[in-house]
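User: What would this chain look like folded?
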Amino acid sequence: MSDQMHNSWNKKEVINNIRTQGYHVAENYFSESELAEVKKSLLDTLHYIKPDSETDLKKKYYQIKEYSEKLKSHWYDITPFNCEIMKCMHKPEAIEMTKKYFNTDVIFLSRPAINAHDDANDKLLMGHQETAQMSVDHILLWAPLYDTNKEKGEGGLRIYKDSHKHGFFEHFLEDGNQRWTKDYTHVKSSVTDQFEQIDCDIKAGSAVFFISSMIHCGYPVTKKNGLRLTMSERFNPLLKLPFLRG
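Assistant: Here's the prediction, encoded as structure tokens.
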């Protein structure tokens, strides 16, 4: 864990920003060496599918996508269980912050993921909240492995300002939009249009923490062979688990 991360992490500030703004951007949350280990692990796993001398993770991703869409999907499915990735996402600071935020001594982790969005944008979701999760309310970690920047076309995170202040909205599968909504619900555009959209530029190594009621989605990758790779995890407080209530 880098000294930079310790210098930028203030638990009280993080909690206050999540309560008031719905999210907090923790700069330098991951060290360069931590990100390098995650990227290497992802690249090594892709090389297991089709070995060669390619050292660029993004190029290797597209190579495997062209080689076998099925095996690329299998890579995507298995990456959340990679120890390097889990070690990165499950820092004590985030767990302790979530305990303090929800005033609980027990936190459950759920749905760790590596999200890969390429220039096809066929997995891009519409505006949604974190529903149907382990806990009703929780805090989500979202962290890019590469800089996200709308102008450079690499895609990124879009949040809807102050949407977390209105509780949870009804979610739907269909809204006359052809984005990837078969299995993931979203709120209607008549709701998202009420809020200011903020397309975030987040540097690699930084992490966004936001409350589950914040409406969010991704903005598209417009650069040819661009790739948005992000780590995500959900920190669930015991007091919000309906699974353990009769």
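The longest strand covers residues 107-118. If you want, I can go into more detail on any region.
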